[in-house]
Design goal:
Blueprint: E1 3-6, E2 16-22, E3 29-30, E4 35-40, E5 45-49, E6 54-57, E7 66-68, E8 72-77, H1 86-98, H2 111-115, H3 126-135, H4 153-166, H5 182-197, E9 200-208, H6 210-227, H7 233-245, E10 253-256, E11 259-262, E12 268-274, E13 277-283, H8 291-306, E14 320-324, E15 343-347, E16 351-357, E17 360-374, H9 380-395, H10 397-400
Parallel strand pairs: 12-14, 14-15
Antiparallel strand pairs: 1-8, 2-4, 2-7, 3-6, 4-5, 6-8, 9-17, 10-11, 12-13, 15-17, 16-17
Length: about 400
């Protein structure tokens, strides 16, 4: 049975992805789970796995193309099986080639316009259409270089650069700002969407991190010997927060289609800084994973994020996010929720502070946590109860991790 290979979508707002490489060629045998192709989105470069055993056939996308998400780019077929719809597609193409070209307004196109390889209306990828709109370019004046004359994002960029070279240099303006990179623009769009559509509220708690420091000192050498990775405070927080979330399913839920979905597993997204932005890589099944496995997942994800080699699965399926800025000596901050998740935990630096102790005063290593919550999914009492249990877990981490 033929299985289609489609250009995957990583995020809701994603329109296209660039095909970086085919790791198999047409006619090659492939096995389910084997790496099939490599794509690039606004977030990262990722490798996509085959979803079935068979033979790669009907490859319809070339390396370097920007392909709309959801478009079929190849097929995995049984040996000797033909690619579905080839004859039908050929017939439709023949009919389209005989039909007169039509402009976007529905009128017959001029002879010069009809000479362009356009069927029916101007073919343009969603990303190219957006770039053309932003740059004020009439797509009717663009000669596409994609299949069948389709206008690609690279065509729009080339035209923008050419126009910039011909235009006289503009006088520098004091208010001029540097252009956003693609990942910076994506972050701007999504944080704006979250902040303006998700009803945030915030709960803050200061916790004595002495036991957490002792647990790291005691368990660190064991984890390093068994898993070859250095244990971090983030690893401990991921493990403790995940186990605490099993007691508070509303904080591990998602707001989808106007309702609350309770997620059966706890997959903790860790916010990681990359060039020009932040990605949230996912530690899967963190509620049951041993501490050493969590540390190893976090280390591997960090390395792939820094090299731009995150896989599609690394960035999907998160149910709760932790953002730790303690390494930057930030005392505390409030983070923006990543929809459809219901909450994100912002972690500040562990710092010595004077605190009341048994009627007197003493210096203790204190840590400030700020929980951002979607009020449609959970209320203040549920958020406070979660932080209370998390504080208890941090006061006896080895007990909770046993």
């Amino acid at each position: 049975m033929a299985i289609s290979v489609i250009m995957p979508a990583l995020e809701v707002a994603q329109e296209t992805a660039k095909l970086v490489a085919w790791l198999k060629k047409e006619g090659d045998s492939v096995r389910k789970g084997e790496l099939l192709l490599e794509i690039e989105t606004d977030k990262a470069t990722m490798e996509v796995e085959a979803e079935a055993d068979g033979v790669l056939a009907g490859v319809a996308a070339k390396v370097g193309e920007d392909v709309p998400v959801g478009q079929v780019i190849a097929w995995i077929v049984d040996p000797g099986e033909s690619v579905p719809g080839v004859s039908d597609a050929a017939g439709r193409a023949a009919e389209a080639s005989e039909a007169p070209a039509v402009t976007d307004a529905g009128r017959p196109a001029s002879l010069n316009a009809a000479e362009r390889p356009v069927r029916g209306i101007t073919q343009i990828s969603p990303k190219a259409r957006r770039l053309a709109k932003e740059a004020g370019i009439d797509i009717g004046s663009v000669q596409g270089t994609g299949p069948g004359g389709e206008i690609l994002a690279s065509d729009i960029r080339a035209l923008v650069e050419a126009n910039a070279d011909q235009a006289p240099p503009a006088a520098p303006a004091a208010t001029q700002q540097p252009a956003l990179s693609s990942i910076g623009r994506l972050m701007a769009e999504r944080t704006t969407q979250s902040w303006t559509t998700v009803p945030h509220f915030f709960v803050e708690r200061e916790i004595d991190a002495g036991a957490l420091n002792r647990a790291r000192a005691a368990l660190g050498p064991v984890i390093e010997q068994s898993h070859g990775v250095k244990l971090t405070h983030t690893d401990l927080l991921v493990a403790l927060a995940a186990r605490t979330l099993t007691m508070h399913p509303r904080l591990n839920a998602s707001w989808i289609d106007g309702g609350i979905l309770l997620n059966p597993n706890v997959n903790v997204s860790i916010a990681m800084a990359v060039e020009d932005g932040v990605v949230a890589a996912v530690v899967t099944n963190a509620h049951t994973a041993p501490l050493g496995e969590i540390a190893k997942q976090r280390r591997d994800l960090t390395e792939r994020a820094r090299s731009g080699r995150l896989h599609l699965a690394d960035l999907t399926g998160g149910t709760f996010t932790i953002s730790n800025l303690g390494m930057f000596h930030v005392d505390s901050f409030s983070a923006i929720i990543t929809p459809p998740q219901a909450a994100i935990l912002a972690v500040g630096a562990i710092k010595d502070r004077v605190v009341p102790i048994e009627g007197g005063f003493g210096v203790r290593p204190m840590l400030r946590l700020t929980l951002s919550v979607d009020h449609r999914v959970a209320d203040g009492a549920k958020a406070a109860a979660f932080l209370q249990n998390l504080a208890e877990a941090m006061e006896e981490p080895e007990k909770w991790l046993a």
